[in-house]
Amino acid sequence: METEGDLVGLVRQQRFHQLKFAEQFTLWSVRMWLRAYCRGSELFTTLHEAFEVVGISEAGKSFDNGMAIIAVGTRRDLLFLGVESQYVSQDEGDFLEVLAAFQKGETERALARLDVWLPVSGTRIAGPAFEEFACCLARGGLSIGANQEGNPIQIKLRNFAISGARLH
Hints:
With 168 residues, the protein is mainly α. It has seven helices and no strands. 29% of the residues are buried.
């Protein structure tokens, strides 16, 4: 897919591989959730296992609740790309900004973005769900929009490493 033609202005300049781990994981989660929702498959289990591996298993319920409202209640078509896409859509970037705002305590800014997508009743339900999800991400070391870089999985693996061990 090229950024020319129908998708001009719908994708961001920044590519998926340029995002921090927390943002990649979050977008992967959204894309996987939408794939599972559309296919009615067991991919939800894979998604929740990934939350568990990253150390945020408690985030699953709030994430599911928020995504369900987005999936059924949006006022307009949103562009969320496939799991394997190297691009990041404008809507996906806006979703990351919603979570970043919640993590910074900027609730009004986050809810204002959701209000563009959802009717008031939808925002009232999705807002607290995504706020809780954003807090779970932050507690798990997954800061959205922050300058710190860190892959919590690599950090956990380092904790299990035996220093100075060698294979002979």
